[in-house]
Specification:
With 742 residues, the protein is an alpha/beta fold. Helix 8 packs across helix 24 and helix 10 runs parallel beside helix 11.
Length: 742
């Protein structure tokens, strides 16, 4: 039997464990570290210097922290309690300092004896624990600690390299214990197989992998850390880009039917009727799409557009071009509300061109059908028949389109709206409906910075629409601090009344529906999120049904108020949207079902309740529902979060700019690195550890170039066994097919 390669050796084995069994168990369960290689790739989050202390002044609330500090004083108190009624209870209070601030540590009961002996004034140590507040002061209760005395040989050795690595830790395993475990397995780094082709590594002056691992875990200087990180960033960027380049390469080898529109066909007839001219951006993106559709390989294009930049029109023209060329086009929407909305706007834009085979249909007309899961049996049968015979050139639907029963006559183009709501399997299942792979256009209204597009959607070519059509109005956004300034909230409702008095309409958005099903979930979720300084976090999020009732009886009394949420019957949802679109409702109180695609130009105001419960890009999406006509839009972000909180800063950022790309950068900078790629479908940890998607734009762009060249020269990695091994580790066969999208 072959020996297990050193880096693949499990940390926990039945007979001999690399680490103690308890440590190995915690590492597997809490940090997802199973092998020696996993542990070597668990890099320090930051480094402390012997002479320089962490800023106690900047400690985050409710987070697990590791600090290096000096004991200022230690006092043992006795007290009476229910457990120790005779005043025999003991509490040790230790104050530590680092020059920037002071922090209290507290130990109780039998736990006081050892720290009382160890933590004498003047002692330096590393402390780890969860920051909490007691009597308005920050404290760590029962922190774990490691003295930095340097008296024993081992300790002197461990701290001799003046830089102390601080590892991402958990409550069950402190940073220094992880550090000791890493030192145990560090000799195995010599056996690390290098994924970078030697020519690339030498050409870019990067360290060999074993050397980089050694320097990141046991650096002697800051230059060691910088060199190691530069090398490890390249590994992550390059291996990921090779996976995406292989997918692009494989896609480029697939056959597809070229689809070129007729000279005087459906597309020309449609363009002739447009009451406006396309923006330069729409024309440019359309040219890119039509060039792709004319090739013998499937188009794979991502169409990014600001909210309201006219993506639907660009997609519709692409669909008409395919129908012109004798094929069919399918548009996949994430929700029924959105599928119905798209169907309505497409048929309105096309007029009698959408009435193929019917009385009143014109010469080039085709049929546009809707297919959703909740349709009646007769309507569904008719839609399925129209698709199978080819009568329907365009179908718009939800994931019901992917079901086995749905057969197409000749599927030529698939348009996926709001990609981040669709799994890649679903996308590929729909692609499998064509006789040959259909062309694919993915639309997203969530602006994605260029690097993220290269990292997350790296198997798609990207087109960007960043120009708003003429006639769109600016949207003013303001934060309404309901707790600090209740009169601001009262003024918000007055503004809604003023908009309605001027003949306009308004949305009020809430995070929750508020019926029994989610009442049960709401408070529980809220209860887990204990933030001691913050009452706003403790209550359940505001709910549509409650807010609608309060508004109708209170500040918006006399206005026509309706509700819309995801658990209503689809027919009821559609009826509510139709009434709102027709101007029969003044105020629509809704959940985020209105987030994408809902288009009511007369709606000019939006009030978002508990705005801090939404993400940055979600708020931007929601805001894009107003200001779609000629009257200016107004978006009010209502929050009870205190002024200094991170949530308020996030809302201020949203209020300060309408540039979605700028906001997406802010969003990414605020989220933890690595969340960008989502969890891989195998449930593995995110593949990004040192690569920062926003900061490392150059590395990602260069890695993409190198990866494309490597894959073109050697698609099966026959001459690059190290790279092949790294790819297998990043993605098993299935995951390469389904790299999960953002």
């Amino acid at each position: 039997m072959d020996a297990v390669p050193a880096l693949e050796e499990p940390l926990k084995q039945p007979l001999k464990s690399v680490l103690g069994p308890a440590t190995a168990k915690v590492m597997a369960e809490h940090l997802g570290l199973h092998t020696v290689g996993d542990l070597l790739h668990h890099y320090p989050r930051r480094y402390e210097e012997r002479g320089q202390l962490t800023h106690l002044a900047d400690l985050p609330m409710d987070e697990h922290v590791t600090v290096v500090a000096q004991v200022a004083d230690a006092r043992l108190h006795t007290f009476a309690s229910s457990r120790a009624p005779r005043g025999k209870g003991q509490r040790l209070e230790v104050t530590i300092t680092d020059g920037s601030g002071r922090l209290q540590l507290v130990f109780f009961g039998n736990g006081v004896h050892k720290p009382h002996k160890d933590l004498l004034p003047g002692t330096r140590a590393m402390f780890a624990g969860k920051v909490s507040v007691f009597n308005r002061r920050l404290q760590l209760a029962h922190p774990a600690y490691e003295l930095l005395r340097g008296d024993g040989e081992e300790t002197v050795e461990a701290w001799a390299g003046a830089l102390i690595p601080i590892y991402p830790a958990t409550a069950k395993l402190e940073s220094w214990k992880i550090g000791k475990a890493v030192q145990t397995v560090l000799p195995a780094a010599q056996d690390a197989v290098d994924p970078l082709p030697p020519a690339l590594r030498e050409g870019r002056g990067l360290l060999p992998l074993p050397e980089a691992l050694l320097r990141i875990h046991r650096p002697h200087t800051k230059a060691d850390i910088a060199d190691a990180r530069a090398r490890l960033k390249w590994d992550e960027a390059f291996v990921l880009q090779v996976a995406l380049a292989r997918r692009r390469h494989a896609d480029a080898l697939l056959p597809a039917v070229p689809r070129r529109p007729e000279a005087d066909g459906l597309l020309t007839a449609f363009d002739d009727r447009l009451p406006f001219t396309l923006t330069e951006g729409q024309q440019k993106v359309s040219r890119e799409i039509f060039a792709d559709l004319a090739t013998e390989h499937p188009m794979h294009r991502l169409l990014q557009g600001e909210v309201g930049s006219g993506k639907t029109l660009v997609a519709l023209r692409a669909m008409l071009a395919v129908v012109d060329a004798g094929g069919q086009a399918a548009m996949l929407a994430p929700t029924e509300v959105l599928a119905q909305q798209h169907h309505r706007s497409v048929t309105e834009m096309m007029g009698d061109l959408a009435e193929g085979g019917m009385l009143g249909g014109t010469e080039h007309a085709t049929r546009v059908v809707l297919l959703t899961g909740s349709m009646g049996a007769a309507a569904r049968r008719r839609a399925l028949l129209d698709l199978a015979t080819g009568e329907a050139g365009i179908v718009i639907g939800t994931h019901a389109l992917i079901e086995d029963k749905v057969q197409f006559h000749d599927l030529g183009l698939v348009v996926v709206d709001e990609q981040h709501r669709f799994g890649v399997e679903q996308r590929d299942a729909l692609r499998g409906k064509g006789k040959q792979p259909p062309h694919l256009l993915v639309m997203t209204a969530t602006p994605i910075p260029r690097t993220v597009a290269m990292t997350v959607f790296g198997d798609l070519e990207t087109s960007v629409l960043d120009q708003l059509p003429a006639g769109r109005s600016p949207i003013a956004s303001h934060v309404v601090p309901a707790a600090d300034k209740p009169h601001f909230l009262a003024r918000a409702w007055e503004r809604v009344r003023e908009e309605v008095a001027n003949g306009h309409q308004a949305y009020v958005v809430c995070p929750r529906i508020g019926d029994d099903i989610d009442e049960a979930a709401g408070p529980k979720k809220a209860a887990q999120k204990k933030s001691p300084e913050d009452e706003a976090e403790k209550r359940p999020p505001l709910a549509v049904l409650d807010v609608a009732e309060q508004l109708a009886k209170g500040p918006l009394q006399g206005l026509r108020v309706e509700v819309l949420h995801g658990r209503m019957h689809p027919d009821d949802k559609d009826a509510v949207m139709r009434r709102f679109a027709a101007g029969e409702t003044d105020v629509l109180v809704a959940t985020t079902v209105i987030e994408v695609g809902v288009n009511v130009p007369n709606a000019t105001a939006m009030v978002i309740m508990d705005a801090d419960r939404f993400g940055v890009s979600q708020l931007h999406q929601l805001r894009g529902r107003v200001g779609r006509g000629s009257a200016p839009g107004l978006c009010l972000l209502v929050t009870e979060m205190p002024e200094a909180s991170a949530a308020r800063q996030r809302l201020n950022a949203v209020a300060s700019t309408l540039d979605g790309f700028e906001l997406s950068r802010i969003d990414l900078e605020q989220r933890r690195e690595g969340d960008v790629l989502g969890q891989a479908q195998s449930g593995a940890r995110s593949s990004l550890r040192v690569l920062a998607v926003i900061e490392d734009e150059e590395v990602i762009a260069q890695a993409r170039q190198e990866a494309t060249a490597v894959v073109a020269a050697d698609p099966d990695m026959e001459h690059l066994p190290g790279l092949r091994t790294a790819l297998d580790a990043l993605l098993d066969e299935e995951r390469e097919q389904y790299l999960e999208k953002g």
